[in-house]
Amino acid sequence: MQFAIVDIETTGGFPEQHGMTEIAIVLHNGTEVEGKYETLINPHQEIPPYIANMTGISDAMVAKAPSFETVAQEIYNLLSGRIFVAHNVNFDYSFVKYHLQKAGYQLHVPKLCTIRLSRKVFPGFRKYGLGHLCRELDIPITNRHRAGGDALATAQILDMVIQNNGERLIKEMLKKDNHGQTLPAHLPEKQVMGLPQKPGVYYFHDQKDKVLYVGKAKNLKKRVISHFTGLDISKKRQELLRTVYRISYVECPTEFIASLFESVEIKRLWPIHNKSQKRFEQVWGIYQFEDNRGYIRLGIDKKRKHLQPIACFALLADAHRMLWKLVKMHDLHPALCFLDLTTQHEWSDVQEYNQRVRTALQWVADQKETFVIRDQSAYVLVENGIFYGMGTPSADIGIHELDTLKEHLTMYPENEAIRSMIRNYTERYPSKVIRIA
Q1: What is the torsional sign of CA 206, 160, 32, 30?
Q2: What pTM, to 2 d.p., does this model score?
């Protein structure tokens, strides 16, 4: 096997925003080192002081160094046809591949992580960072935090792995169906491979076990693996790759139940890497008022603190959809509902029109009923139009015995996302709705 052991120094942690200041490549044929390449690189951006202090690479040192584009072809030629090896390979590989791509070169080579290899070949160490691992294995490092010194130390780790019957493990890790190389360096592979292929909610935890991200899945294993495949160089993904240490999960009977539970957990935990459902929720309402001619008017507006709408919606489009539905069902005039301002029309009998509006309002009120959604073995209870909770009670529980049913369900707080999901689900699957008088 032909290896290229790579180490880079950079101006920061994200390929889209930061550049490389140094790269070293050690060529290894599986038995011994064949050659070495090393160069400073001008990143054409300022090196942050804390990085300059750590690496010893200053702006002055790289001022006359070649840009990456200048050395890209040479780097590409050295890496082509070899296995890309690095300590925490996803970081180095994402930078090199991204900047090669910008220079016009498409790098497609297998990659190998010496952190993951070391965990398997040398189990039991407290930490597997390059410095800690070299101390445990008595590997000397010269020029620590410089690309050349770290690349040579990583090459010695690879040597020790191979010498400890690691060749079979390397071949296993390089198989196409082995996802270990795409996973975050600190995340045990067995946690991901042990995930069930069932619906549920999953949690990414950091080193202190704080929840970083909550997601839902139709297939837990497949969805979690998808987070770490492909060359996503976004800041969010790179940060997640560096900080996730553990995965936990809760199985759910169906994807719909997982969606509801995910929303509950995002609101409860407020994870740093979740963006959706954390921003301010603009709620829209359908309101009624009587104009100076005596007509009862309906209209859509932002939900007001001290005004009670006849119905609330998380999306403005949903509010318009409902109001148009009322117009068509009860023969209301669009102009009197602020939906069509191009035409004006007055009913000859105000009382007759207002009765139509009252009938429409009563229909809306009747929709705020108590019902159960039966989704396979799971039950979701909505009581008087408000989400109560959900669970998987035994089959002999009487659905129409509301107090008994509640004893077998878990209460959860309602939010706009849950209301919207339930409304859409009941419209799509009316046969799964059981109304309770």
Answers
A1: negative
A2: 0.61
Instruction: Report which of residues 240 and 263 the model is more confident about.
Output: 263
In this predicted structure, the answer to whether residue 229 has a pLDDT above a threshold of 80 is no
The pLDDT mean for the chain works out to 90
Cα torsion 34, 157, 91, 93: sign:
positive
Give the C-alpha separation, 165 to 194, whole Å: 25
Q: What is the pLDDT of residue 365?
A: 84
240 CB neighbour count, 10 Å cutoff? 20
| pLDDT greater than 80 at residue 232 | no
Residues comprising the chain, all counted: 437
Catalytic pick among 28, 145, 179, 205: 145
Is 145 among the residues known to form the active site?
yes
- 382's CB contacts (< 8 A; 6+ apart) are 369, 370, 371, 372, 373, 388, 422
Query: Six-digit token pair at 356?
Result: 């139509």
Residues 366-398 as b or e (16 or more Cβ within 10 Å = b): eeeebbbbebeebbbbbbebebbbbbbbeeeee
